[in-house]
Specification:
Strand 5, helix 1 and strand 6 form a beta-alpha-beta unit. The longest helix has 22 residues. It is built from eleven helices and 17 strands. The protein is globular and about 65 Å long. The chain starts with a strand and ends with a strand. It has one domain: Ribonuclease Z/Hydroxyacylglutathione hydrolase-like (Metallo-beta-lactamase, Chain A, 4-Layer Sandwich), CATH 3.60.15. Helix 9 crosses helix 11. By secondary structure, the chain is of the alpha+beta class. It has a seven-stranded mixed beta sheet. The chain is 37% helix and 24% strand.
């Protein structure tokens, strides 16, 4: 794997990666402190891929781009790779500002709409019950209850209407044609965009250069088994040319896609082996999460750690390598077969 560019755009600035494709970087208030967005020249306007979180800081940076980067041309189309709030958070705000059409896959739009509106006490109770069954202690459950639906706090209202994009679709953006490649596992119907003319893949979170994308199970689909989907996506993406330029949502652009995909597949096999070795006796999800994530974690990271651990445990169950049971209090426990 090789980095393609040494410079990183400052907030409020852009870098042109290939003709007509400009790299923006917006801040995030997490340990993972940035997201890459992509502004594509599109005739008399611009197509924007992903938006950033709904924060005052990012809105201020966007207004700076409105006044300079856009060169007097409007944003006419928004493509959101998937529903996660750093990607979809300002889709509604930007669509309203510019009258732009929102393009998403159907499942990602449905998840965004559902999670942004499901803020009542029943939803919060379901969230806390999900983490209670994973073995979270009372103090952590209180923190989760107080936080509520964190998704809704990080996104502007999701547009009621959208243009549905599907796997295999091809469409023009400016002078080039881009093909939709749907990835799964990190999100239900994650959109990647591939341009053969530019040897370029806008990968979203499906392929990241340094960290593994989160492959997790969460409260809205507690019996999900996303790791099989993620590994199948890796096999599909390996068919792209070896020299493909990868534009990820975090980190820096790189080449060497096949080697990176092999690293990601191997990473998950190591995780599975670690969990199986730790399941010689019945263990809760939280206990096993500490095997994969022994470092100190904040609340945001704990939810991801539980989700990732569950995804790997569910995969082991599907493989027949582990089984799940329940204690008298309803907390789930896992043990190797």
């Amino acid at each position: 794997m090789e980095k393609l560019i040494g410079a990183i755009p400052e907030h409020g600035q852009t870098l042109e990666i290939v003709p007509g494709v400009h790299w923006l970087r917006m801040p995030l208030p997490f340990v993972l402190n940035h997201i890459n967005l992509w502004l594509l020249s599109d005739g008399d306007g611009w197509t924007l891929v992903d938006t950033g979180l709904d924060t005052d800081e990012i809105k201020t940076l966007w207004r700076r781009h409105f006044a300079s980067t856009l060169d007097g041309r409007p944003i006419t189309r928004l493509i959101v790779t998937h529903f996660h709030p750093d990607h979809a958070g300002l889709a509604g705000w930007l669509a309203e500002e510019w009258g732009a059409e929102l393009w998403m896959s159907q499942n990602e739009w449905l998840y965004a709409r559902m999670l942004s509106m499901d803020t009542g006490p029943e939803a919060i109770a379901q969230i806390t019950e999900f983490y209670r069954r994973a073995g979270c202690e009372h103090g952590l459950l209180e923190q989760l209850e107080a936080r509520g639906n964190a998704y809704a706090d990080r996104v502007a209202p999701i547009p009621r209407a959208f243009r549905c994009i599907r796997d295999g679709m091809s469409f023009a953006i400016g002078e080039h044609h881009w093909r939709v490649i749907v990835g799964r596992g990190h999100a239900p119907e994650h959109v990647c965009l591939y341009c053969a003319e530019l040897d370029t893949l806008i990968a979203g979170d499906q392929i990241l250069p340094k960290i593994s994308p989160v492959v997790g199970v969460f409260f809205s689909e507690p019996e999900a088994e996303p790791l099989s989907d993620f590994l199948a996506t890796i096999a599909n993406l390996r068919t792209l040319p070896a020299n493909t330029r990868v534009l990820p949502s975090h980190g820096v652009p790189f080449t060497g896609i096949r080697g990176r995909l092999d690293e990601l597949a191997a990473h998950h096999e190591v995780r599975l082996d670690q969990l199986l070795s730790a399941c010689t006796a019945e263990r809760t999800v939280v206990e096993l999460a500490k095997v994969l994530f022994p470092q100190e974690l904040d609340l945001h990271q704990i939810t991801f750690a539980v989700g990732e651990t569950l995804a790997h445990l569910h995969h082991l169950v599907v493989r027949g390598a582990a089984r799940r049971g329940s204690r008298d209090d309803g907390v789930h426990v896992f043990r190797a077969c």
